[in-house]
């Protein structure tokens, strides 16, 4: 069999094959335009046309969807996981907080900087977590959804109003740091320094420490971690089981939150008129 091509109506190159048996050139695949062989038509067939249009429309639709998501909250709203398990906070609106997997360093024997004996280095490490930041100001509009209420401390109108508040997570770390300082093997050092919580008399210090302890108890119970600690074997001679504290966790971005709190602190020095004077009925008889 031999193949040859011919021009068909000046547009389509058609293939004909000569059949040895008939010795005649017989159109084999080149038919008249009315024929069923659609692939060889000069214009795309109906289905091809539909397909191309569909693809173009789909791409446009995806593009429009992308633009819409860009302009709406959808593309950034990775915070939904955290929103479900958190009191509302401007931090959830300001930051793209999403959960990330973090490998804990659960070393039993090897102490990192946060576990060092009392001294300037370990203090600096804890300080760098933002545990002693000044409060932040929360705009009035955001305060109400964040469970702050009008009876609480606010800035005066002259300073733009808004609530004075601390980020809970940093307070928790402040508390943990106080427990560290109060540990029997650290407390003498910090008593001698007489700074922070140690400026107060024994009764207040004691009260402060137990307040911190109980706050952390409630927080840990609130977010009770249902992850598991497996066990490892150690000691080649006489293998013994020991908990494996090097576990994976779903964590919030602490560093982003710390940075937010750092940037939103009230000024270091504020005027006497900085706070709006309280209404009489908003002032309590004693510290709750
Ligand atoms: C955990 O931290 C300690 C102290 O910094 C270090 O010696 C150890 O190698 C770390 N362990 C892992 C598994 O990263």
From TrEMBL:
TM regions (residue ranges): 46-68
Pfam families in the cross-refs: UstYa
Keyword list, A-Z: Glycoprotein, Membrane, Transmembrane, Transmembrane helix, Virulence
GO cellular component: membrane
Localization annotation: Membrane
Superkingdom, natural source: Eukaryota
GO biological process annotation, one example: mycotoxin biosynthetic process
Topology of the protein relative to the lipid bilayer: Single-pass membrane protein
Family: Belongs to the ustYa family.
PANTHER family assigned to the protein according to its UniProt record, in alphabetical order: TAT PATHWAY SIGNAL SEQUENCE, YALI0B05434P
Protein name listed in UniProt: Tat pathway signal sequence
Species of the source: Diplogelasinospora grovesii
